[in-house]
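Collaborator request, handled under Task 6.
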Amino acid sequence: MHLKHGCLVIFLTLQFLCAAAAHAAPERVVSTFLCTDEYVFRLLPRERIAALTVLAGNHPPVPPVVSTIADQVKGIPLITPDAETILTLKPDLVVMYQGTNPRLLANLQGAKIPVLEVPWPNSLADIRNVTRMLGKRLGVERTAEKLIGAMNAKLAHAEAHKFSPPVTTLIYEPNGYATADGVTAEIISRIGLRNIAAALHPTRLGTIPVEAVVAHPPQLLILNAARETGRTRADQVLENPALATLKGKSFVAKADLKPLLCPGPWSVDVLKPLAGLGRAALALERGAVGH
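Structure tokens returned to the collaborator:
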């Protein structure tokens, strides 16, 4: 009886250890997409990051400034993610966004590499869920909750000082793109900026003609300042002479919108600067400043 009992204890102990090992926090994590780079960098200590993508450091071949962590990733391997490169890094977890690279996903699964697919957040609630999911899988729940707590505090401050009535706002991107919904619209609403993109009837591609902007001027027109050093054809719409007719009607300003490119707890970093633009738009409307 004692022998059987002892064998049972050993068997159960081994089962427990195997289960614990299967769910152990990964020590060599590779991210394969800018928006997972942003999460992995903020959640993990450097020694547990095997690689981020070249986009994290704004390195060639991608010239636009798109990363919010570009000046912080020195010393971390930055890769163009392909199966061969990733396999040489011997990761125990690869983090990627759902649907971004199905061929790479298939190759990694074929090589028995653990992969965590991250869903795209479409709301602040989604951001909280994704952050907690990553925190649990990476074994850094406390860090994840700190990110969420900091985000919630900034949102609460914004709500307490929001504009009422709201300031009509349009975020105008190269090629005439304008965000009508999702995380961006939800975030700016917290400071009392009312996104009018949907009211201007965007095309199926999500673009709004300059003529529509001029015909229905918002109180605040925000142009994306985080662009390439060289101007492109896509930027021509933002330099259209017709926008000059908005003088005295709209407060037109450039803003760094990089935190909104990849939805995450850091996206609320735009709240403070955009609130400043909202105040300037109201001052222009009151005639307190020239434009």
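The cover message to the collaborator said: "The mean pLDDT is 87. Residues 245 and 280 are 18 Å apart (CA to CA). Please let us know whether this matches your experimental observations."
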